[in-house]
Design a protein that fits this description.
This is Rad50/SbcC-type AAA domain-containing protein. This protein is of the alpha/beta class and 197 residues long. Helix content is 45%, strand content 12%. It has four helices and seven strands, in the order ααβββαβαβββ. A three-stranded antiparallel β-sheet has the order 1-2-3, covered by helices on one side. The chain has a two-stranded parallel ribbon with strand order 4-5. Strand 4 (121-125), helix 4 and strand 5 form a beta-alpha-beta unit. Helix 2 (47-65) crosses helix 3. The longest helix has 35 residues, at 2-36. The protein starts with a helix and ends with a strand.
Amino acid sequence: KELSSCIRHDLAALDERVAAKAKLTEELKRLGLLLLEEQDGYTADSFEDAVKPLVSEIQSILGRWGFPNHLPVDFDFKTRDITIGGSARGHFGKGYRAVAFSAFVLGLMNLLKLSGRHPGFVVLDSPLTTYKEGDELPDEERDEVSSDLIYAFYRDIADSFKDSQIIIFENQEPSMSVIPALNYQHFTKNRGHGRYG
């Protein structure tokens, strides 16, 4: 009798799973049909006109950070990347490429927030670190980001992005004078100092 009860319970559970699978299969079919329907495409009279405000915002950010030779900033439609001072972003060393990409991300956020199309939240992973221990990089890739730029980066994050949430994972610590203006969490492997992690 107990075995019969267990079998009925298992059969009921299987019936529920079969019904759930059938429901999900129907939902997938419905969504597949929606994908096949023609959707309105994005149109702009001129993509160049749509990029101008972004380029202007990136140029402003790089200027505040003291990025060397940052004028002018432009957008290369062939590579779909920015140029800085006439040089492709990819021609910079790893550190300055990361800084420039951070300016791009923050500039895009600022621009999209104006139209209500961005939540004002970004995560930047190692925007200032040129290389990690153990990386095998040629000397030209190991460009050190200047301490003035590092200071200006953190100072600008604190001053210019107060209505945004920017999480930065970085080995380069902010200056002690900037830390009070940030929600700074120092992660350590030491339970008695900073935040363990």
